[in-house]
Amino acid sequence: MTEKPDEAPSLCRVYEDRFRIGAAVNPWTLAKQQALLRRHFNSLTAENEMKFERIHPLEDRYDFTAADALMAFAEEGGMAVRGHTLVWHNQTPAWVFKGPDGEPVDRTTLLGRMRSHIHAVVGRYKGRIYAWDAVNEAVADEGDDLLRESPWRSIAGDDYIGKAFEYAHEADPDCRLFYNDYNESFPAKREKIYRLVEELKRDNVPIHGVGMQAHWNLFSPGLDDIREAIERYASLGLEIHITELDMSVFAFEDRRTDLQRPTEEMQRLQEERYASVFALFREYAAYIKSVTFWGAADDYTWLDGFPVKGRKNWPFLFDELHRPKGAFWDVLP
């Protein structure tokens, strides 16, 4: 395609009657991708700037500088904000789990610190953030265990997950609260996520939705598995948000590092893949209320260098110059 960016329809306006179109951002992309973000996205998520380690690095220190800047950018542009994330086993500072003697704290202390953090963060943005990932990636990837091991679990017990939702609901009763995870469309993990969320609902935990991260590639997961996951989570009576969508041009086992550009075949497959998944999103728009890309354009993506160091990836609808790629046109209804 040769159309200039300003000749392309606004993606979020095209979809405004179905679901929000979001992008994960950071200080660099907020500076470099302003025009693109304001034109095509009506929801923003902080890539890292609202995580525990960034906002609350020390017990007696909060730093909302970057998060506040994101909020200001969004509100100046009339964009909604989706919060990410309150409780996670990763990117949480070590002090959270330790006492003055360096030993693990007890359950009461840890839950108190969790509640204090959640009330400070959610409370600061009360009424300004429409949804929070209250708990992120708590399900075990493999084996028979439902939950992954983490300091949250080992110190506070399995109900730390429900407590996170309770505390977030206390801080902002009108905010939608989500459980968010990856590999959410593969049957084995899908069923674990389903079981966890079903148990939370049974226990009257204030959970409103499931976040399907959707870090997918040209070949996996299968479209039937994605459909089954959407239907399975929707059967619980919850909203679904696609929270971290990108479409890697490499299969996970592909370790090539020599490509300077995606091949024509990669581009073709990416176009077909995006067309298929967005057709599915449209089909289930009664349940899917937000679709967020984990980035906006190919000049920045966390996939550069992951899982192969030094390798470029091109996972989005817009290229490095912020021009719509072929896949952009294929996702339009």
Task: Explain the layout of strands and helices.
Blueprint lengths: L10 H4 L5 E6 L1 H6 L1 H7 L2 E4 L5 H4 L9 H12 L3 E9 L18 H18 L6 E6 L14 H6 L3 H12 L4 E6 L5 H16 L6 E4 L2 E3 L5 H12 L4 E10 L15 H20 L4 E6 L32 H5 L3
Parallel strand pairs: 1-2, 1-9, 2-3, 3-4, 4-5, 5-6, 6-8, 7-8, 8-9
Structural notes for this entry:
- With 333 residues, the protein is α/β, with parallel strands linked by helices.
- Helix content is 37%, strand content 16%.
- It contains twelve helices and nine strands.
- The chain has helices at residues 11-14, 27-32, 34-40, 52-55, 65-76, 107-124, 151-156, 160-171, 187-202, 223-234, 264-283, 326-330, and strands at residues 20-25, 43-46, 80-88, 131-136, 176-181, 209-212, 215-217, 239-248, 288-293.
- Strands 1-2-3-4-5-6-8-9 form an eight-stranded parallel barrel, surrounded by five helices.
- α6 packs parallel to α8 (160-171).
- The radius of gyration is 20 Å and the shape is globular.
- Mean pLDDT is 96; it is low at 1-5.
